[in-house]
């Protein structure tokens, strides 16, 4: 019997193959490899999808976070060494971007139910030195932005896992949002790619300057910048996939509902809380005892699973200088030993999900 993949990129590609090939032929015919027309078209389309005024394509999601922070700091006159509040339960790129932007990460714990950044702890961490707050929209669910926006510092949303998600009918509500189009995302490229989305023309212009050597006109460099442009071929892929994103997210919601039925009542398994139609289920994350043993057993049974994330930021050696240790963020640490991401992609079948559920029962037996 074939394995159940964790993510089936081939199935997604099959749905867009014709449009992508036609788009590649168009780019190759025009030799429009850097900042070609498809980049500008994708930026318009992605901004519209999010109900925003501006989107700026970038080389990857980590650059998107860093350049968004740098743009905020540049326009607000924030000096070096500013503090940025972010969750301990996130991929390391969130904290990396803060450090790369010249700021200091200030970590806070997760709330127990959904493992998103605890808004009360974030509020308590804000000081006069705080230059930004960076909530992370994990697993396809938006963080509680309404509890963060009034705190004073600008809010930069890490939206790499929430493409198409909403809260109270709105996709993005902070000053600026950064996303990744890594291949496994809900909207994934065929390599690295990223973007920022904002309603501010000033922020958008600053990010455009930063991504292209600080320049709007060749050989005129207004600020010190970087080389982080969205590749035109990746823009072709993203345009083709963006047309299907709403439908794919609906398929993810249906798959999440099936998992909830199939996994209900399995002893020791904590399921994610349902969140209605605003959740886009980038990941379906359960919590189980003996997680590493269970993951290995499921692999033996032909089920590919993931772990997001096994080590919180504060326990990563690269961030030891922050001075934290075991026990400082107990919710994130406890979750790190139990979380298990099950196969989730739009094209997953009922038969595949039944096999996942059966394997999980056997692994826990």
Q: Give the helix proportion (percent range).
A: 25-40%
What is the fold named in CATH at topology level of the largest domain?
Aspartate Aminotransferase, domain 2
Number of domains: 2
- What's the pLDDT, averaged over the residues? 96
Written as H for each helix and E for each strand, in order along the chain, the element string is HHEHEHEHEEEEHEEHEHHEH
Describe the strand arrangement of the main beta sheet, using strand numbers. Answer: 1-7-6-5
Low-confidence stretches: none
- Output the CATH homologous superfamily of the largest domain: Type I PLP-dependent aspartate aminotransferase-like (Major domain)
The largest sheet, given as strand count, sense and whether it forms a barrel, is: 4 strands, mixed
Number of strands: 11
CATH A-level architecture of the largest domain: 3-Layer(aba) Sandwich
Total of helices: 10
Name of the top-level CATH class of the largest domain: Alpha Beta
| Strand-residue proportion | 5-15%
C-alpha end-to-end distance: 22 Å
- Find the structural class using helix and strand composition: alpha/beta
What would the principal axes of the Cα set say about the shape? globular
Radius of gyration equals 21 Å
Structural overview:
- The protein has 365 residues and is an alpha/beta fold.
- The protein has two domains: 9-238, Aspartate Aminotransferase, domain 2, CATH 3.40.640; 245-364, Alpha-Beta Complex (Aspartate Aminotransferase, domain 1), CATH 3.90.1150.
- It is 39% helix and 12% strand.
- The chain has ten helices and eleven strands.
- It has helices spanning 9-30, 37-49, 61-76, 92-100, 119-125, 201-211, 232-263, 291-300, 330-336, 350-364, and strands at 54-58, 83-87, 104-108, 130-133, 156-158, 176-180, 194-198, 215-217, 220-221, 284-287, 339-342.
- The strands form four sheets. The protein has a four-stranded mixed sheet with strand order 1-7-6-5. Strands 3-2-4 form a three-stranded parallel sheet, with helices on both faces.
- A hairpin with a 2-residue loop joins strand 8 (215-217) and strand 9.
- The longest helix has 32 residues, at 232-263.
- The radius of gyration is 21 Å and the shape is globular.
- The two termini are 22 Å apart.
- The model has no long low-confidence stretch (mean pLDDT 96).
